[in-house]
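Researcher: Next sequence.
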Amino acid sequence: MDAGLGAARRGQDLPRGADECGTTAFESVPAWRASARPSLRATILMNPSFLLDDEVIASDNSIINGQSRRRLHTDAAAHLRTDGKSRMTNTDHTPLAEPVSPREIPDAAIAMLDAEGTVVGWTHAARQLVGYTAREVVGRFAAHVLPPPEEALRAASYAEQCRAQGGWSGTVAVRHRVGHTLKVTLRLSLLWGQDASTQWLVSVTDIGTLSSGTTNGPVRESLLARAPIGIVVHDLQLRCRLVDDVMEHHVGVPRDRWFGHHLKDLFPGFEAEALEAVMQQVLESGATKVHEYRAWPPTSRGRAHVFSASFFCLQDADGETMGVCSMSVDVTGNRRARERLAILSEASMRIGSTLDVMQSGQELANLAVPLLADHAFIDLVESVPFGVEPSGQIGTTSGRRPPLLRRAGLATIDPDVAELPWVREEVIHVHPASSFATALRTGRSYLEPVLDTHASPWVDHDPVRAQKVRDTGVHSLMVVPIRARRYVLGLALFFRSEEQTPFQEDDLLLAEELVTRAALCLDNALRYAHERTTALTLQRDLLPHHVRGGAAVEVATRYVPADMDHGVGGDWFDVIKLSGARVALVVGDVVGHGINAAATMGRLRTAVRTLADMELPPHELLTHLDDTVRRLNEEDADAPDQDPAVVGATCVYAVYDPVTRRCTMARAGHPPPAIIDPQGHVIFPDMPAGAPLGLGLGLVPFESVELELPEGTLLALYTDGLVESRDDDIDVGLDRLGVALARTGPSLEDLCSQVIEALPSQAPADDVTLLLARTQGLEPAQVASWELPNEPAAVRIARQAAVHQLSEWGLEYLVSTVELIVSELVTNAIRYSGGPIFLQLIQHQVLTCEVSDSNTSHPRPRYPHSIDENGRGLFLVAQLSRRWGSRSATNGKVVWAEQDLRSKAVAV
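Model: Next structure:
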């Protein structure tokens, strides 16, 4: 026997009845109908005098008597047989009758009884259940397979109940042919024939198989739950001979019209031909089959119901086919439940594929059409797409104007979307008296099965659009608020125009469940957008807003944050003006994404600027920065209230001197810079990579590389997001970058844009940072240098030389100040060093005075008391200068001081 149920039931089981819990051998439960029916003689059905034990059955005499009884009941089965051949019906044009896989065929045993309780029809399923063949049972009384005689007396009382109620169902014990007892659910159903004749259909399901894990079918579960089952018995020519009252209710056709007709004669509008084809197959093969079909009961208000029909072949005493019995169960609720589950399952896969709020709204609309509605619109509160929560919680916005909405999703079955009165991303003004405003304020759904497109407040508010709505034929509306954490994020609107059936309460329940799941995705996207916006705002505030290279370089920058899936990273760049017209170029990348990476980036950028003010060489600066990052890691590890997070970063640091046109650079685990000479040749210099910062891998010290760069050379510093991708090797990215940078002619801003546009994806998986710097050189006339002897007379020589140079540059207003500064710096050099002394004046955006000597010790200002005679020199220099400081040099140090210029004109 085929077991289980599959395709027709779409993998979902109906609820089981309560029979499994019963332990009494005869557990009587009233049938679903209680009206009086013609009597079934208990003395025939369950009288002990007709019980046959195994010995009598095995005797020849008993078999002969049984054959005699079968001959007496030949006429009872004759009306189900004809001499004509059965025909096969074409089903090509009736696809709605769905075949079911073998594992879904129910195992309920079926037997036909006449009004006297004699078996007139038997099935293969019945034989498999109780062991008796049709030859052994047909023509005998039903008591043949009842329990032993001592139990039959208890069953007699239930016969009266069956007779009074026109049917009976309950849990009984039935004797198998080999002698053991089966606990089964038995159901007797009254069938009506022509001229008010009656017969009984016995349905039996073995309860013992319920624990075996076999999938139950709709008919079998209906037997267990005692749900209404529509029954029809057809003869060999597929004409209706017997029908029960339930079938009349299923399809709304009086039973008198059934007799002697084919299904296609009664119901030309539904899948009659397909069902007759299935019955023909059952007649020819003898196998049980299950199909689903649709019908429109009178009480359904025009809504189709889905029925699952099981077809059994009935056999006479000789085992010959005498007809086919169909048992139909209304599985509309189960079917709709499966459809709802399928839609919700689809929602979990299709909604929230990205963390983009607008995209999630569109995904919800796409899912709803056409599964639920003909048109769907997702309108979000205008602040939500920008990562900002709505201003008021549910129930706290009474008296306020409804917020503006922005259409995030739009889907429609109408192929000509352009003519519809809706546009994605448009701003929606909600009328305060409309149902939309009420849903926004209260957070409750609204169902309007028949949409009034003539008198609603929104019609008067926008009559032009209302007319377009009427033109589309929209007639039914559901408004479902998108709720999350006591906020209404927006509204989901569902309309029907092509589907004539209006929305009903179960549609609203499905829509609410669908929107609830979508709301979780939208809320996640909103919170992520909020966090991403916060991190991006923090990062942009921590990055320099305007970068200038002074007289040393012309600069341009670009920063592209990572896509929504990966979040903002910790990239940073900086251009730091140093003494002597020099400039420092910095690009770094903190490991990780999000607000923590952005905050760490800000700390490291501040540390780099602080170390740069100390005028450290690039390799020393990276060494100190590595120590800083490691200290940050140690502090985070000691924090008791948070999990330790390892901070790592990469960095490249370069210093360019426009006086010497030399560039010194070092890197810590960062991609090498690109250098493009004025002729467009691109190189990536071979320089020590260094270890990333903060990871404790600095076994090899950082090293600096010094290069001479002709004026007009282009330096490109960048992060790995510009050259690395999951699909290509880094060499491919470096080649692509080199090709983009080799283009001559465009400005640096245009060149930055071209490099970014050359990225494989405009939504990169990692942050992209690019810093371009084109070198410039100072003219010889802007720099004046002198070598001074290490003797007291050098002070006077230095003053005279400075005054003369300032006069040539037209900077006489600085003479007195510069004289004093030169005197103090040269005097200190003479006092504390033993080698030659050099004086240099540089006129660029400021005037820089530099004094270098062979002493490597840096000066420190002193704060003398009023009675001290010494220690006021550097104090005076600090008071007279714009800023001052010192830096290490190859053979000593350089002490410098800057003066502001009145005019930015530079002498040539």
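Model: The longest strand covers residues 181-193. Residues 1-107, 210-216, 219-225, 904-908 have pLDDT under 50 and may be disordered.
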